[in-house]
Amino acid sequence: MKMIKKSILFLMCCLSFGLNAQNNYKSWSEIIRKNESAWFGTAEAKKIAENVLLYQRDIGGWPKNIQMQQELSEKQQKDLLALKKTAVETTTDNGATTQEMLFMSKMYEQTKDERYKESFLKGLDYLLEAQYANGGWPQFYPLKKGYYTHITYNDDSMVNIMNVIKNIAQETNFYSIKPSNGVVEKCKKAFDKGIDCILKTQYKQNGVLTAWCAQHDEVTLLPAKARAFELVSLSGHESARITLLLMSIEKPSAEIITAVKSAVAWFEKTKITNLEEKRVLNDAGKIIDKKMIPVTNGSPIWARFMDLDTNEPFFCDRDGIRKKSIDEIGSERRNGYSWYSDAPKEVLKKFPDWAVKNGTKVSASDKKNVTLITVAQDGSGDFTKIQDAVYACPAFPYEKVTIFVKNGTYNEKVRIPEWNTNVILKGESKEKTIITFDDNFSKIALGRNSTFYTYTVLVEGDDCAVLNLTIKNASGDRGQGIALSVVANRVKVSNCNLLGNQDTLYVSGKDAKQYFKDCYIEGTTDFIFGSATALFENCIIHSIKSSYITAASTPQGTPYGFVFKECKLTSNPEAKDVYLGRPWRIYAKTVYINCEMGNQIKQEGWENWSKPEAQKNSFYAEYNCKGEGYQPTKRVKWSHQLSKKQAEQYSIEKILSDKTGNWYSK
Predict the structure, then answer these.
(1) Where is the signal peptide (predicted)?
(2) Half-sphere exposure of 599 toward its Cβ, with a 13 Å CA cutoff?
(3) Each residue of 573-610: pLDDT tens digit?
(4) What pLDDT is recorded for position 17?
(5) Torsion-angle region of residue 24: left (phi > 0), alpha (psi -120 to 50) or beta?
(6) Coil/strand/helix, residue 87
(7) Which of 169-183, 325-339, 431-445, 457-471 is predicted with the least confidence, judged by mean pLDDT?
(8) Which architecture does CATH list for 533-657?
(9) Of 324, 322, 152, 157, nearest in space to 231 by CA
(10) Known catalytic residues?
């Protein structure tokens, strides 16, 4: 019997080696997750699907680490047919089985081939059959001797299974195949058992709930070891996906809420901000060395293995001896394994919203650790005024601080000072969370610079975000009156209404870059003005009356000023003569790309503000716009129509990236 198993394993290795040796496409996991839906109806996809059907064992599962898109010889196909009845090496490790089920779902959606549906359902039966009575899943099923029988969170194996079961139990549209009511009920029970197992395996450290190990004993539920270098420990990586799964549950129980809060507290406690991984690559792009470099206030990372009692990170070679640093282990394990992870960052990012949704408040008096402050006019939050919440924010925090503002109309001026960086000002809904004030130039009456004091909301802190709000200057058409003033760098404003008349939005700051996405911005004269590099993407720009949309004051030598991409330019009926822009300062830069322009836009497009020198020094341009207002042949001669090659230079990366990276995507 042992000889038969060895022969089968040898054959599997040969198949895998042969397939990898002729890999001329892209990785199997990328094919499943990144191809367009229509591709799954192509002849190429159908050919690959035949391989996937061949690899599936009759028990319903698949082996791991196979590039299933590779062409099979007749002999290989025959060998795989012989393996189908063996159930050897069927597993959920490294994404196996769950990823093939996703592939079959996408194939069935496009082709309605019943074989794909049957394959998917066999895979689902396999997952349900493999579950332990205590709710956990082993790494291999049928059971394989050794650490493979442990409840396996390693590489997100059990979480992947749970997400499949969850989608079936909740009858979502994620999968195209709809099992019978009986199977749905089985999935509901299986998911509940799985959650119960997760809650029971969360490790208590001196009576305090923390996180999870990569493996837990299938009988005692205690943390367990796997390979020689995978000792009993708490896992910074696997615990992240487990916590995110718990956070995805609608109407969580008190036990789930406690589990999430405890895990988040543990992530906060164990994050590492004084080290950064440096990888040394050879010419082929392969890692030949890893080093941990000391840094100050680095982006948080977590160790893959931490001591059960002290949370101290440790590292192991194949000899199983614990070391305190990766420098103390051999190059093979040091460079061939992921010893650190940033996966918990996603948990900490989503926790503030989850906490609000589930009735969890963070005390604003705890200035050192505050990450969420809630504002509610009915007294159910930490404060009733937004500015009071800003005052409670820590100065220069290491992590984002969310000020969550519940629905209501807040009649106040709000200032986020320069020292309050990393603040997220987030409303409960764009339409019903309104910040309004009615200052204007004449009301302020502080001299010729009065405009800059008229703001309703002022953002001076770098790395801030404003989301899901309406910000309004309610003074009416009585001269300059700013709704939102942003004089900071790396500020993102999304899904907001910015309402005013003259000078609605002021964007400035030394070398500042700002991103406005999915916003509605309205005004009369120069209602978007300032010196910042600002990208407006998928925004509605609405003119209340005939006047000027922009008044840029771009500094000399700055590569980009205002850039509008995929925006829609609309107006009130009385606004019949609207200019795209005029130069507040002579080096102004404003560009419209792929925008829709209504007939309110004047055919000449641009005006020089009685500054002849601006015609030589400013840069006003358009590319591939549409609508009645887009009349490129009738624009003023000193403006530009970009070529396709020139327009390609206006990517979000080129406009907004800086030394911190792609901050706008976070």
Answers:
(1) 1-21
(2) 3
(3) 999 999 999 999 999 999 999 999 999 999 999 999 99
(4) 38
(5) alpha
(6) coil
(7) 325-339
(8) 3 Solenoid (2.160)
(9) 322
(10) 526
